[in-house]
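So, does this match?
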Amino acid sequence: MTGSTQIMKKNLNYDAIQKAMEDVRRDVFDYYLDLSDGSIVTIPKKEIDALIRKLYIEECEDDDDRGVIFDSSVNMDAEIDYPEEEIVEKTIHVLMNPGRYVRIPERDSTEAYNTMRRFALTVNDPVLKDSLLHALNGKGAFNRFKSTLLANKKERKRWHGFNARVMKEIILRWYNEVTGDGEY
């Protein structure tokens, strides 16, 4: 393991990376890990999408070209204010430095489901255990599982600790993959 990787692992903000990984919709932000210092860089997706619409004029000569942003013209009359300019500069900086910034992936839904199931099987209260296992059936399982835990503060706290330990392993595995470091 290199010295910089060793320092980096100590600086990993597991809570922030977990939060980023668990934001599976990515409709508001996308997240990048700065490998130089362990910080998390957030890219605001809505603002970037709005800027793209502001900066480009779509010129579609045929239906096949719709939505192809690179075949569009730049709107030279578009005005970009200071906050927008800062967002563009940050985004370009992150995207142009792939050796420094690595996109934090969304948590795998199957893995998250399996973690909830494994936790439910550790619950001693048979009624709560059955409710949690039942909550995992069908669409909306994640929300039902969390709602079921709301009534039991002790088990909810235990769930958060259980999930955080599992996520730490997932984060380390991902980090080792992106840095080429085989150690955990």
